[in-house]
Structure formats: C-alpha cells, structure tokens
Specification:
By secondary structure, the protein is of the alpha+beta class. It has three helices and seven strands, in the order E-H-H-E-E-E-E-E-E-H. Strand 3 and strand 4 form a beta hairpin.
Length: 162
C-alpha cells in the first residue's frame, strides 16, 4: 500500500527545534536501556556463569555503551539538524523523513499504536509505536514526528486510520 496519507513540510527552525527535543527523548531512553543492560547483564553473569561482580561488570559495560550508541546512530539517522526544506511523508507502511525511510509495517513489523502526544514547548508529536517479534518475544520502538500547527485535524484523522 503506497498511498500517501499525509505530506507535512516544516521550516528549518521548526525542524531543528523538533530534532533537539526528540534527540533528548531518545538519549534518555538509551540511558535507561544501557542501565538495564548493566544491571541484568551483570546479575545474569553472576548467577548463570558464577563470575564475580567486577568481572561481570567489566564484561557488560562495553555492551551497555555500544548497543545504545549503535541504536541511536542506525535507527535514528533521520534526526539531523540543518536540513533544507524538511518534510515528512506518511504512508500506511512507512514514513519518509527527509528521504530516510522508516518501515512501519511489513512481514515482521506492525504499528502497535498511534497517538498524539504533547512535548516540550507545547509541540504536538505524532507517535508511532512499532512492534516486531524477536527470538525472545515482541519488542518495540517509538518514532515521533512533529505535527505542524495547521495539520492537527489531519493528524487526528491519521490516528483513526492506523
């Protein structure tokens, strides 16, 4: 389904403000993710491999930094400042954010939920909660895009469609 559902354009200043806010959100998420890796990984190694606390911590720490770092670099390449003529195209199965494709639905992915949230500075964001199945069960990630002030009704309509 390649029907264009919405096409939103922004000024460079609007986009830069959004990127600042969204990178802050993602950074916070990744810090919690890294802390979870440290705690669970260290305890898991101590329990199942009989390692000492310090050995488990030494083994897990590189992963706690590397995985969130790579996640930020690979999954959120569309969050760049200084973009000329920033735009978002919303399709049923994907987002095209400044020529970067974000898969929403496919053989292994689906949109679990779509909602409008309020962010810092009273900005409204459209949040796509995308879920996929892994070997250890379902996992998900959120992709948020800025709703232009004049596109709020269109955003509300999209929430009912997806």
């Amino acid at each position: 389904m390649n029907n264009l559902l919405a096409h939103w354009k922004y000024t460079s200043d609007q986009w830069d403000e959004f990127v600042t806010i969204e990178k802050g959100n993602k950074k916070e998420d990744n810090i919690y993710f890294g802390i979870g890796i440290v705690i669970l990984g260290t305890l898991g190694l101590m329990t199942f491999r009989n390692t000492s606390f310090w050995m488990g911590l030494a083994f897990v720490l590189p992963f706690a930094f590397l995985i969130p770092f790579l996640r930020m670099k690979i999954s959120y390449r569309h969050l760049k400042k200084g973009v000329q003529n920033p735009e978002v195209k919303i399709y049923f199965d994907k987002l095209i954010i400044n020529n970067h494709i974000v898969e929403l639905q496919g053989k292994r992915k689906r949109v679990k939920s779509l909602k409008i949230i309020e962010s810092q500075k009273n900005l409204k964001l459209l949040e796509f909660d995308v879920q996929w199945i892994t070997g250890k069960g379902p996992t998900n990630d959120e992709y948020r895009i800025l709703i232009p002030v004049d596109k709020m009704e269109e955003a509300k309509h999209l929430v009912t469609l997806l």
